[in-house]
Design brief:
The chain is an alpha/beta fold and about 375 residues long. It has eight helices and 19 strands. The structure holds delta-amino valeric acid (DAV).
Length: about 375
Amino acid sequence: MTKIVNSWNEWGRLRRVIVGRADGTMVQAPEPATVRDWPQWGFPKGTYGTLPQEMEDAANEQLDGFAALLESHGVVVDRPEVLDFSQKVSTPDWKQDSMFGVMPPRDVLLTVGNEIVEATMSQRARWFEYLAYRPLLEKYFTEDPEFRWEAAPKPRLTDATYVDGMEFWEYAESLPDEEQIERFTKKKQWNLTEAEPLFDAADIGRFGRDLFVQRSTTTNGKGIDWLRRHFPEHRVHEVLFLEAHPMHIDATFIPLRPGLALSNRKRVPISDEMKELFALNDWEIVPCAEPAYNADTKPPLCFCSEWLSMNTLILDEQTIFVEETELAQQQQFSDLGFEVIPVPFWAVGPFGGGLHCATADVYRDGTMEDYFPKQIPGY
Ligand code: DAV
């Protein structure tokens, strides 16, 4: 019997992983959840199209290099299928002028134990992205009799899903970050309504029996509630950080090994129960290093922040892959006792993220364990 899918946390020894592809990635067409406005890079508001070929080639070279590096460490690497992301897509509820791409599998696929869940996603351009992973999921299903293949309810994504549609972003972005944090983050209310469950898989941090889910511009309260009901053996905790535009937890708060987590030095946790839970169970939380990646050095057309510096992939409890120019972050990991494997990766940023975003766990050694035996009632 072949066992293919098994991963309960972010640190067990990695044996099999999906690595994304840059091919055909789009500056996506505008929609209520997302509006790109990059006149300085040839994509003023309302326009869309494929990222430049030379950027795509550079990103693919780094992705292929990373895949080969993982293989040289004994990890089986699977790659998704490339679709025509420039095509128009529609459901009976809406029409959308383009898709996005297939670089960040972490956003779409949530692996919990023997199960992979296809996330709802919350953007129309990303609604059909699961199709790129179907050949792999079908194969795992055929070959691994214990693999549980699940898909969260496909969201409607009608106008009722969004607060004020695209006008939301115009309004939000006219305010300073501090005001956005007061007005949106602390009220847990950004662009998404609570009309239906929504989540991106990358908003979930897997810590064994405990799953920490960031409420964000891609994950709403109902999405977290869906996850809670879907994983009754787990404890699903909602978490919130000091950030005006939260999107995906993996450049904000990540576990490194049992008892040790890395926290963004600016986007600090603002959920009191979360802080209490970590303290109660003797988890140490260390602030990350200063990023080298920044607004001046990051490549054009990148919608991710400089905090991709902490978006890393753990090979095992002693070994971590870190972007090659992030020397301060590498030093911090060395000081924490890790062997650091540098990986050139910043050409991939504009295609949807860093080393964690670009991968999705298929198999890590380990079982479901409880790293937070002391719980806080009601959290
Ligand atoms: O901080 O820009 C990056 C994660 C994308 N999957 C950020 C989030």
